[in-house]
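Bump. Still looking for 3',5'-cyclic adenosine monophosphate phosphodiesterase CpdA structure tokens.
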Amino acid sequence: MKILIYSDLHLEFADFQPPATECDLVVLAGDISVKSRGVGWANETFSCPVIYACGNHEFYKGHIDRTLTKMRDAAAEHVHILDNQSLIIGDTRFLVATAWTDFTASGDYRVAMRVCAEWMNDFKRIRIGEGYSKLRPVDLIARNITTREFLATELAKQFDGKTVVVTHHCPIQEVAGDGHEGHLGAAYFNDWHDLVAQTDVWIFGHTHHAVDTVVSGCRVLSNPRGYPGERTGFVPNLVVEV
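Sorry for the wait, here they are.
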């Protein structure tokens, strides 16, 4: 299976039209655009199956649960908006989630929560709950725990084919790249080495740092375009074979 990989296209800042590329499937690992605009773009841009994991920016100026529902409602039949869900295509199993983080990666989750709440736009631009309250770090910890449990449960199940995990947030610090030091880094990556070791391929985004490497037998990839003018290592026609 030939998979075309993109993340962090940030179409809210600049359009992107993929070059003609032969592939069987497209993976969009989040931050394609805000709200359901990335879904509309995927509907029109691709005719093959698309697996789309939401990033944090999809939820900007919206409600974290209602936005996901609207994205699914807007999706064409070939575009799959997944969160804590699995999808089997051929002999390949895809486990998909936004992931978020639990803020423990920098060593002191309490301090990391305070720093991230103060400096990160997620906690100013995303709403949650019946009262449309501002998102809090503790809300994301709960979602991160749910995703970790989902992945651990699914990876423990016998599957004869290949397994590909797709998340927006980075699974381990080693592949996050530079610029994520200090407590703000705790909002970018997890400490999921045990899960990575159980997976054939892990595709992620969020860090704006392209990577293609092998960790504990798992091929770990990210192909982010990033913001206009940003140098991320983006490859417009990156296809991997699984």
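Residues 197 and 216 are 5 Å apart (CA to CA).

Edit: fixed formatting.
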